[in-house]
Amino acid sequence: MTVKEEIEQLKREKNAVILAHYYVPDEVQEIADYIGDSYYLSKMAVGLEQQTIVFCGVSFMGESAKILNPDKTVLMPDPCADCAMAHMADAETIRRMREQYDDLAVVCYINSTAELKRYSDVCVTSANAVDIVRALPNRDIFFIPDRNLARFVAEQVPEKHFIFNEGCCPVHEQISPEEVQKAKAEHPGAEVLTHPECTEALCRMSDYVGSTSGIIRYAGESSAEEFIVCTENGVRYELEKRYPQKRFYFTQTEPVCMDMKLIILEKVLHVLKTGENEMDVTGNVRKEAKRPLARMLELAGTKQTAGPARG
Ligand code: SF4
Hints:
Elements: H1 3-13, E1 16-21, H2 26-31, E2 34-36, H3 38-44, E3 52-56, H4 59-68, E4 73-75, H5 91-100, E5 104-109, H6 114-117, E6 122-124, H7 129-135, E7 140-144, H8 147-156, E8 161-164, H9 170-173, H10 177-186, E9 191-194, H11 200-204, E10 208-209, H12 212-221, E11 226-230, H13 236-242, E12 247-249, H14 265-274, H15 283-299
Parallel strand pairs: 1-2, 1-3, 3-4, 5-6, 5-7, 7-8, 9-10, 9-11, 11-12
Bound molecules: iron/sulfur cluster (SF4).
The site of iron/sulfur cluster has 14 residues, from helix 9.
């Protein structure tokens, strides 16, 4: 039996479901039941009928799945797969900001630890951040941890006062505008599609800025035939699968999240076989971190539906 066949068989036997982020390796995306960006996966994790969730992504994603589904078993194929940005804020700074501003909302990008979420008022993803911030009654917004997404949202919600935090995604921050210019020179007809975790300079020279799922959608709707994609290179799999007639290019230094690439088929099989690497978020952390996550789902008006397996 191949590794994939063994995974399929164990999944059925153990009543398990596999969720995967667009940035994990292609072969893992291939075996996933649900594949998407953080927003889609956080919605899908709610109310799944299977008892065991194998979460092919980094630890904050598994934490969110566990917080939203405390009675389920959430297995992480590699517990060392972590997001550097998820740790780039701290409780003490949040406390000081709350002292300084009476009417502060702490808005926490979902790419953050449960420990940070618990001190926040609402979570957001790159797909829903603008709508959620706009819907908040507060004028002062402390946006953690990503300064690039914060700036992108602030530009679109000028009626709010933003306080920025010095965190960023090292993978997106390092996508170089010069390399994008070079790719443009090679493919003059290509549109530039950029994730808002990228720098301001790169966003300004882009034809479209949006979440990973937004980029995928835009590539399908645009009349352009070629695109320079400024986000993690795992998204190439879905883009080429959905739009085989279109061409997708990345910068010469391809953006790779090494933590996402830790998730390989053999590790998925291992946790299904052994039940090891179970995610655990306990006590007050779980209770307090659930509040901003639930508020996000509520404000975004999104209840899980029997939707497509991709998003
Ligand atoms: S790509 Fe960036 S934000 Fe996403 S998991 Fe990797 S380090 Fe974190």
